[in-house]
Design a protein that fits this description.
Helices cover about 65% and strands about 0% of the residues. The protein has five helices and no strands. The relative contact order is 0.17.
Length: about 150
């Protein structure tokens, strides 16, 4: 008598990775991506205003906490806005690099909010909480958005 054992094919050489199941966090990922797109547009518009009409802002360049002229400030906001906008679109598309950029930007935002906590305590705490939520959603549940399409 011979006993036959099932032969293992190339697909069964290791543990089978199942795609992550979609949970309620897919909605938070969409929220994070849309928020990134919206903030990117706002920053880009703010940068364009600083570049084309520096008299629009009421505070003179000497009254800013960071001493930059409005041209430099405008370019920084325009470039940062475009990066955030593209990363938000990438998160919606389920791209890994976009999740990394989103996490990095949320960390920078949380640290900046912490630096201004004495001036705006309630708003800073709200922003820090949102940043932590976005970091968690992008880091832990980021693959769910790609599998939900």
């Amino acid at each position: 008598m011979s006993t036959t054992t099932p032969t293992a094919g190339p697909a069964s050489s290791g543990p089978v990775r199942q795609p992550p199941q979609t949970t309620g966090w897919a909605g938070w990922l969409i929220f994070a991506a849309v928020l990134m797109i919206l903030l990117g547009v706002f920053h880009a518009v703010q940068g364009l205003i600083a570049l084309f009409n520096s008299e629009y802002y009421l505070v003179g360049p000497g009254g800013l906490s960071v001493h930059l002229d409005y041209t430099t400030w405008g370019w920084v906001h325009l470039i940062a806005g475009i990066v955030v906008l593209v990363a938000g679109i990438g998160v919606l598309a389920g791209q890994f690099w976009a999740r990394l950029v989103g996490i990095l930007l949320a960390v920078v935002s949380a640290l900046t909010s912490f630096a201004f906590i004495a001036a705006y305590p309630v708003w800073s705490c709200i922003l820090i909480a949102l940043d932590v939520l976005i970091i968690y959603a992008l880091a832990v549940h980021g693959r769910e958005l790609r599998s939900s399409y």
